[in-house]
Amino acid sequence: MAWIALLFAGMSEIIWAASMKQSAGFTRLGPSLITLAGMVVSVALLGWAMKTLPLGTAYMIWTGIGAIGAFLVGVLLFGEAFTILRCSAALLILSGLVLMKISA
């Protein structure tokens, strides 16, 4: 169950990162509220998952999901560059997540 909570924590991190981009520096109310709610949900789920998962594993998986997800949202929704170098970096992060999961 902790792994599921961690997955949802990472997905919430993606939501708040994308909302923060849309908030225009917290000048737009709707995206700003989504950002704050996403942060609270993300950290609460991370904390719950850390009751049973090791700190390093949980934190790395959480940040990795957020990093890869934010990269994909940036490319797909915000028109950010999808270069071989950026894609390689995302794949390296993904490789680290897989290795961390296997080692846990």
UniProtKB/TrEMBL annotation:
Belongs to the drug/metabolite transporter (DMT) superfamily. Small multidrug resistance (SMR) (TC 2.A.7.1) family. Gdx/SugE subfamily. It is found in: Cell membrane. The chain crosses the membrane at residues 33-50, 57-77, 83-100. It comes from Asaia krungthepensis NRIC 0535. It is a multi-pass membrane protein. It comes from the Bacteria. Gene3D superfamilies: 1.10.3730.20. PANTHER family: GUANIDINIUM EXPORTER, SMR FAMILY PROTON-DEPENDENT DRUG EFFLUX TRANSPORTER SUGE. The keyword Secreted does not apply. Pfam families: Multi_Drug_Res. Its main location: membrane. This is Guanidinium exporter. Keywords: Cell membrane, Membrane, Transmembrane, Transmembrane helix, Transport.
